[in-house]
Specification:
single chain, alpha/beta, 7-stranded mixed beta sheet, 48% helix
Length: 345
């Protein structure tokens, strides 16, 4: 089934089968002994069933842990979770991918420094997981008493937030999976900005429902990445909302960009929306500080590259955003998710 537009799908099964038959015929010309299995092998079926059952079991276990953590309001929980992940993380499958990505991104870093970044990455993931359970308690910004505020906002970022509050038109905001990446969305709601955040639902349905309930209470509107999302995003921009989106992961069908000197695919949604609505794009991130606090930063509107017709160049815009994210990751590499397969060439 091929998605055409809202509530419109096209069945392309026959054309797909014709393509497969033509491909098999070409392969057999080079290899007459080629064996083609058109039906799912019993091992594939059994593995799929096992993965489905295991996913459900893991989901309910995580949900139980999630509820237990929610029942304990202590500043030590994220610290304990971070230390646990420093021990558990290196034994997980993502460790191998993360190490390979780090070596490719920083070929001149010694092994000891790579190990330190990996350990810090797992620590950040543990803390982030624990913080999710108490998401409604993270935002604690006290402008009158910065010493007791958990969120640190410098004067230049505060000035940009004030401009956003009086902007009145659509704005696009990008972020990355750095530190606690939910904090910019919490800030938008706290400062009274009309906002809508694009998000991908977790694979575990029980956890997805709990997180969605938490997000709905402390954030603005939420738009899941599924059919019909583009229609909701455009309506939100027409109402003068700020659209927030994380753009630091691989996107099938995205535009080409360079990240740490290597080609990758970037979701071009923000660039296309900026071209259509001719609205500004700003970056937002949170930096985890050693004392358990976070510093919130908001960039100035980017100078967006334009083509000969004066319209925003989508590919060049996404490359500029990617360079900003690369600079963020270089500043605090231990706070980024290195185990994601960002480069797939």
């Amino acid at each position: 089934m091929h998605y055409l537009s809202f509530r419109k799908w096209e069945d392309r099964s026959l054309r797909y089968r014709n393509f497969i038959d033509a491909l098999v015929n070409q392969l057999r010309q080079n290899n007459p002994k080629l064996v083609v299995i058109y039906e799912h092998h019993w091992t594939l079926r059994s593995n799929r069933q096992i993965n489905r059952i295991a996913g459900s079991v893991v989901g309910f276990v995580l949900l139980w842990v999630f509820k237990c953590v929610r029942g304990v309001n202590s500043a030590w929980i994220p610290i304990i979770a971070g230390r646990m992940m420093r021990v558990i993380g290196p034994w997980l499958r993502g460790q191998r991918v993360a190490r390979a990505n780090l070596i490719a991104a920083f070929p001149n870093k010694p092994t000891r420094e790579i190990d330190s970044i990996l350990s810090g990455m797992w620590d950040n993931i543990g803390r982030m997981t624990a913080e999710y359970a108490r998401l409604e308690n993270i935002w604690n910004f006290q402008a009158a008493d910065p010493a007791t505020s958990r969120i640190v906002i410098e004067s230049d970022t505060m000035a940009r937030v004030t401009k956003l509050q009086s902007h009145g038109g659509p704005v696009l905001c990008f972020g990355a999976h750095l530190a606690n990446w939910e904090i910019p969305a919490l800030a938008a709601k706290a400062f009274g900005l009309k906002s809508a955040m694009i998000y991908r639902q977790p694979d575990s349905t029980p956890i997805a429902k709990e997180i969605l309930l938490l997000r709905e209470t402390v954030m603005g509107s939420l738009i899941p990445t599924r059919p019909g999302a583009a229609w909701k995003i455009r309506n939100a921009l027409r109402r003068g909302c700020m659209i927030g989106m994380l753009v630091d992961q691989h996107s099938v069908g995205g535009v080409d960009a360079i990240f740490f000197g290597r080609p990758c695919k970037v979701n071009a949604t923000l660039g296309r929306l900026a071209r259509q609505f001719d609205c500004p794009i700003q970056g937002a991130r949170a930096i985890r500080l050693p004392d358990g606090r976070f510093r919130l930063e908001l960039t100035d509107p980017l100078a967006l590259p334009r083509d000969d017709d004066g319209r925003i160049n989508v590919a060049a815009t996404m490359q500029k955003i990617t360079f900003v994210i690369e600079e963020w990751v270089r500043e605090h590499p231990e706070q980024w998710l290195w185990f994601h397969r960002r480069w797939r060439r």
